[in-house]
Amino acid sequence: MINGRIGYIGLGSPGCPVSVILLAQLLLNTIHYKKGMNIISNLNRSAKSLYLLSFLLLAGIQGYAQQGAGKYSAYLFTYFTGNGNGEEAIRFALSNDGYNYRALNKNRPVLNTAQISATGGVRDPHILRGADGKTFYMVATDMHVAVNGWGPNLAMVLMKSRDLISWTSQSVNIPKAFPELAAVNRVWAPQTIYDPQEKKYMIYWAMRFGNTPDKLYYAYANSDFTGLETAPKQLFFSPDNAACIDADIILKDGKYHLFFKTEDRSPGIKKAVSDYLTEGYVMYDKYLQQTTAAVEGSGTFKINNSDNYILMYDMYMSGKYQFTQSKDLLSFQVIDNDISMDFHPRHGTVMPITAAESAALAGKWLTPDDVMRFSNAAALKKEATVQDTSAGTLLLKVVPGTGLSSFDPGFITFPGVTLSPEHAANFSKGPVKYTVRIKGQPAKTYMVSVMQDHNPVLKGLFADPEILYAEKTGKFYIYPTSDGFDNWSGTYFKAFSSPDLAEWKDEGVILDLKDVSWAKRNAWAPCIIEKKIDNKYKYFYYFVAAQKIGVAVSDSPTGPFIDSGKPLIDQYPAGITRGQQIDPDVFTDPKTGISYLYWGNGYMAGAELNDDMISIKPGTTKVLTPDRTYNEGTYVIYRNGLYYFMWSENDTRSEDYRVRYGTSASPLGKIDVPDDNLVIAKDRSLGIYGTGHNSVIQIPGKDEWYLVYHRFSYPKGITMGGAAGYNREVCIDKLEFTGDGKIKQVRPTHTGIQGVSFKK
Questions:
Q1: Contact at 8 Å (CB) between 376 and 412?
Q2: Which of 201, 251, 252, 709 has the least CB density, counted as fewest CB within 10 Å?
Q3: Do 445 and 435 contact (CB within 8 A), yes or no?
Q4: Residues 6+ apart with CB under 8 A from 597
Q5: Cβ neighbours around 114 below 10 Å, total
């Protein structure tokens, strides 16, 4: 087994090996061994010899494959991380199961890019175990987008190792090595596979001449893997004459499956299949990615000791990586919920490795501090882990209700790493002492504490929270922006429900932009309102997509919501020329029953909604911008005869993102801004930053109010620079008023609130 791929031994003519093996495969798969021998005994001498040889050959191959599969108990993921300075470099991650990965070397490069590349950058690394089982080959695109842009790029890097730690390398410039290919201007995403007929390593990659479509080429590496000994030949091109890039070949059941990205009118991942490694590929005209997002960089590998294959790919516009699983390499199911990574990879590959190889990698690039970061308890708020490496302390935050008398943090170890205690411990009486030992390194001891904090209230990264109490169900609901996507590039909305504001249930996706005809990007900042129409509850959900505001409708607070088919707000109000049409807020005046919509970034606008709730009443739109502190995120409430307008000041990427307020005598009236009008702001002493874009909930029947807001993810957000603005989490703290109706400044907390009680 080579990188999860089963090789075969050639029997002579090019057509013989696979056809013979397929016949033997049929015998092995469909008949009992003794019956197979009976069938063979009835054949003529020539056929008998051929079948017997192929039968025994395949049995040996399968035995070798099973033996090889048994050797491998871990996985090595090699990848790069992006287009910025220092990101175009080779990084490694380890996994015990092929689903949960942890970065080595603190997600820093494991090879010196300046020494191995001609450009100063490498991308798209592919790693392969050699036919001897103990030599490793890695290839990568020699390309430095951060400095040179997207082209031309002309070279690939060939690397070789005996231990996965020390590598020799050589950059191969295609036009220089082959002057007849002087017109080449793109050499992308090389990969390697062993050709057992030629007994050589074949490198294949995408290459372009001038402005013609990219095609897939191959050549054989020389014996020391420092160059190409044969001139590149065409391997595959799209029947539609579309560009083909990012090829990945895997052998299954005697056939070569070539996965690639086609750049046709609807780019995506397809595959072609052949009986032969270097020719005869026939394309299956079916997209294999399980997403509508842009994808590239497919990689396939087999899960050790199973029939499951993984197809993973880079959702490069979404800042995500998707994993899918299949048994037949044709029908794939998304398994993202089974995947965890503490890094954000770009276009990489996975190779099965042995326990000894995993131990060597851990000993080289893993530290005790890293081990204590690798925990996977279901109750853990992973984003809220606080580690002080100098003091040897670790604080784990868990969801409310987690039992602490016998709690297992689920620290993830690898071969060569031991941890004591190994399993559950009693955290109810205080910190527990843990000791980490890594072969070749000094042991280190940590004091580990576990705390039940209510903030953040939602598990994961979410922002711009809208909160609703639904009369129909007697529950509270939060409707956030799905966060954690680079540059706010999320494309779906979720809902969360709670009976008491403390325990929150994920209700799943309630609206996906794939079901919205007029916009497919930037799903942001929703709001919702419950209306009783003809004695039935209806829910009107206003949302942002592509910097426009739409509305979707449902009979349930958890959807599904059906889009109205067009944007509700897609133009500036009169007199406004700057800003964005985002951040809607819907409010029904309890005095009149009239509903209003507010929105804006850089300006605040408001308008009356028609009774249908999906259109604006003509002539009612007003610009209401209260003062220069207004940026976005309007939210309106009514209390004791006053209309309170809240808004967010500064940019969401700023640690000083915060909430201010003003009051008015009417829903569209002039807003009076008090001198001391800060609602909530950062608290450096608690490590809480970027507190903004709020909503407010009143407990039914009570003068009891709570502020729902987002903040930078804790504790890492403040270290992320501008990326903190799309790595946020949702919190709830109590909102109080003075006797004369002013809002008291809310102090953000980690503890949050306990559950509330009320009569429906």
A1: yes
A2: 252
A3: yes
A4: 542, 568, 569, 584, 585, 586, 606, 607, 609, 616
A5: 10
Residue 595: HSE in the Cβ half-sphere, 13 Å Cα cutoff: 20
| Number of other CB atoms surrounding residue 262 within 10 Å | 23
Alpha-carbon span 284 to 270, nearest angstrom: 7
In a domain, residue 751? The reply is no
**CATH number of the domain within which 622 lies:** 2.115.10.20
CATH code for the domain in which residue 423 is found = 2.60.40.2340
Q: Are residues 296 and 391 in the same domain?
A: no
Domain endpoint, select from 394, 422, 452: 452
**Spatial distance between the Cα atoms of 575 and 588, rounded to a whole number of angstroms:** 26
Residue 605 and residue 626 in contact, taking contact as beta carbons nearer than 8 Å: no
* 39 has a pLDDT exceeding 70: no
Rounded CA-CA distance 581/542 in Å is 12
Residue 637 belongs to a domain: yes
Catalytic positions, please? 464, 632
Q: Tell me the whole-structure pTM to 2 decimals.
A: 0.71
- Quote the DSSP letter at residue 228: B
In a shared domain, residues 662 and 560: yes
Burial classification of residue 236, based on how many CB atoms lie within 10 Å of its CB (0-12 exposed, 13-18 middle, 19 or more buried): buried
Residues 6+ apart with CB under 8 A from 318: 293, 294, 485, 486, 489, 490, 491
Q: How far apart are CA 27 and CA 40, in angstroms?
A: 10
HSE-up of residue 724 (Cα within 13 Å, Cβ side): 25
**How much is the mean pLDDT over the chain?**
90
As beta bridge partners, residue 674 has none
Do 320 and 392 belong to one domain? no
Q: Which of 494, 496, 525, 499 is nearest to 511 (CA)?
A: 494
Same domain, 564 and 528: yes
pLDDT at 719 over 90: yes
Q: Pull the structure tokens for residue 335.
A: 């398994």
- Whether residue 45 is found in the same domain as residue 81: no
Q: What is the CA radius of gyration of the chain?
A: 30
Last residue of a domain, which of 452, 472, 506? 452
Distance CA 757, CA 632 (A): 32
Are 203 and 245 in the same domain?
A: yes
- Write the pLDDT tens digit of every residue in 349-363: 999 999 999 999 999
d(CA 640, CA 634): 20
Does one domain contain both 318 and 306?
yes
Quick check: helix, strand or coil at residue 646?
strand
* Predicted pLDDT of residue 389: 87
The strand pairing partners of 447, in sequence order, are 393, 433
Q: Is the residue at 4 inside a domain?
A: no
Residue 752 included in any domain:
no
Q: Do 636 and 644 touch, CB atoms closer than 8 A? A: yes
Regarding whether 483 and 532 lie in a shared domain, the answer is yes
CB 646 within 8 A of CB 660: yes
pLDDT of residue 47 exceeding 70? no
* Domain membership of residue 172 as a residue range: 70-365
User: Which of 6-15, 289-298, 433-442, 615-624 bottoms out in mean pLDDT, i.e. has the lowest?
Assistant: 6-15
192 pairs with which residues across the strands? 203
The secondary element (H helix, E strand) that includes residue 69 is helix 45-71
